[in-house]
Amino acid sequence: MDRYAALSLLKEYNREPFHLQHALTVEAVMRWFAQELDHNEDAEFWATVGLMHDIDFEQFPDQHCAKAAEILRVAGFDDRFIHAVCAHGYGILSASPVPEHQMEKVLFAADELTGLIGAAALMRPSKSVQDMELKSLKKKFKDKSFAAGCSRETIRQGAEMLGWELDVLMERTLCAMRATERAIQAEMETL
């Protein structure tokens, strides 16, 4: 499925600007990681999985990932794609498979982390990640009352799955979000 068709499908199930921005952010971060980790030939696959990972969350939060599998199967996505999308719910949602491939592990770790970084950016005078430093992000990470819905344990577990130090995951995800923030903001203005 090309990006236009995937985005159209996503918008059938998601209307809230917050959810759309999160989808675009995770899409961009996944594309960035694919390129950073020398998976250039799969960058669009990584990005599309990122774009579609929460397709069901807005309308079916209690059936998250299970409903996504149904929606994506009807839309013609293959089992590999559906597994990748659903694996981001591992350990949180009973029906979610274990992240097996590097891409699935990156999505598992980066999904929650992009939410935390996005919330931290909104608290900054600039409302941007452009001037956010790792030290500032780590301080927000340690504050359990800040963005309490972002699971620190999932982020830690994702870094472990990848074999990365937590600081490495945070710094790389910050770099990805800095590199893509302006393009996402521009696209949000057109949605």
Features of the shown structure:
mainly alpha; globular; 65% helix
What is the gist of this entry?
The protein is an all-alpha fold and 191 residues long. Helix 2 crosses helix 6.
Could you explain how this protein is built, in words?
With 191 residues, the protein is an all-alpha fold. The protein has one domain. It is 65% helix and 0% strand. The protein contains 9 helices and no strands. It has helices at 3-13, 17-36, 43-52, 66-74, 79-86, 102-122, 134-142, 152-162, 166-190. Helix 2 packs antiparallel against helix 3, helix 3 packs across helix 5 and helix 4 packs antiparallel against helix 5 (79-86). The two termini are 19 Å apart. 41% of the residues are buried. The model has no long low-confidence stretch (mean pLDDT 95).
The biggest sheet, with number of strands, parallel, antiparallel or mixed sense and barrel status, is: none
Q: What is the number of beta strands?
A: 0
Shape: globular
Helicity level, as a percent range? 55-70%
Structural class call reads: mainly alpha
State the distance separating the first and last CA atoms.
19 Å
* Number of self-contained structural domains: 1
The DSSP helix count reads 9
Rounded to an integer, what's the Rg over CA atoms?
A: 15 Å
Runs in which pLDDT lies below 50 for 5 or more consecutive residues are none
What integer is the average pLDDT? Answer: 95
